[in-house]
Amino acid sequence: MEPDGLFDVDEPPPAAEGERPSATAPLAVRMRPRTLDEVVGQAHLLRPGAPLRRLVEGGAAASVLLYGPPGTGKTTIARLLAGVGHRHFVALSALSSGVKELRAVIDDARRRRDRMDQQTVLFIDEVHRFSKTQQDALLGAVEDRLVLLVAATTENPSFSVVSPLLSRSLVLQLKSLTDDDVRELLRRAVADPRGLGAAVELAPDAEDALVRLAGGDARRALTALEAAADGVVGTGATRIDVAAVERAVTEATVRYDRQGDQHYDVISAFIKSIRGSDPDAALHYLARMLVAGEDPRFIARRLMVHASEDIGLADPTALQAAVAAAQVVQLVGLPECRIALAQATVHLATAPKSNAVIAGIDAAMADVRAGATGAVPPHLRDGHYAGAQKLGNAVGYRYPHDSPDGVLTQQYPPDALVGRDYYRPTARGAERTLSERLPKLRRAVRGQG
245-274: per-residue pLDDT in tens? Predict the structure, then answer.
């Protein structure tokens, strides 16, 4: 998991007034916003009267859950909140801290409050990784405002944070930076004396490459810029071009957490792109999953489900293609199975779509759950045991193959469901033929001419 925001949680406490980060500190640290006005992006939280601006400028004592992607400034905001009223700042990571560390912070916060009248801001990075017991350990201190909790998470807190803690905190959702936001950060870092001090020039196409690489992540953008600048200065040059960026960054890190929101968001976008008949978008999301290390068996399972759910009999070969891709995944594995997954993805994305099969089975199951069942007609019951005929089982059953057309009039559903239509084929793809044939079959089976 890459560090969040513009700061690492293991950095020292915020510098005192007038102090500045060391010249050898990472560019992202040197360029950390010192005031709200230096924060780029998050306009919905920073405009006049918005909750975050009121918290920082008004010094309100409210615990906050900051929810959003990496590199959007969650740790930055925590430090700005800590700077109000000279509060004491403590940072913990849920990856390496437990109840023992929490209790030590709470005990220290109590001493500071009682002896120095100083409030403690407790910043917890990746709070979603705390267990329920660990989160519960915070409740008393948060309730009494012994600590001002500022917790950061890339997960939806509604699912990852216990309800009592959620109800005691203000939830603020941060958004990925826009391309213009990242561009502003890059230009500021190049020109600002805290940054590169105009020692290098950033070519427009290199700036575009860094913006694409960042993917809305401020830290990633500044880290890549610093690496490219170091490489250029090391050769005695002063201009950062695309080649310099490519040398500095061999491959963009894909923002994707197999256990978190991105796992569900990307697979959702993948399936919806296939359903929407956009093979290019579907291949993009497939690539994101593969590059990020997603289990190809998971992707294959989703393709098989989608083939029946959204294509069905509009293209009877879609399920075959998905199953074949799953077999390739099982028998061959990566990296070669990516080709079969891509082939199945394109096949399904370009296939005619129909949800008639899933709509039919869901409607039938809804009737069954509602009690619309009824007895199996006697002539359809099993007649392969002694005494069956005496009960009337299988008596009167008509064998369809005895008819020249292979279809004859006979009641198949229970009495209560005679005439109920569940499968309604569309006029798309191979279902067009079925939509013409099925009414004739129904009329023949039901004796309607």
Answer: 888 876 444 455 555 556 678 888 999 999
Of 442, 447, 411, 449, the C-alpha closest to 424 is 442
Give dist(CA 173, CA 154) in Å, integer: 10
- Backbone φ, ψ for residue 92 (5° rounding): -125, 150
Decide if 67 is inside a domain: yes
Stated pTM of the model? 0.56
Q: How many CB atoms lie within 10 A of CB 335?
A: 9
Tokens, residue 78: 């925590």
Count of C-beta atoms within a 10 Å radius of residue 390:
8
Backbone region of residue 42 per phi and psi (left: phi > 0; alpha: psi in -120 to 50; beta: other values):
left
Name the helix (H) or strand (E) containing 202.
Answer: strand 201-202
Q: What is the pLDDT of residues 67-89, one digit of tens each?
A: 888 888 888 888 887 777 678 88
Domain with 54 in it: what CATH number? 3.40.50.300
- Does residue 10 belong to any structural domain of this protein? no
Same domain, 302 and 319: yes
Residue 7, domain member (yes or no) = no
Same domain, 86 and 164: yes
Give a yes or no: residue 44 inside a domain: yes
Report the alpha-carbon distance of residue 62 to residue 47 in Å, rounded.
19
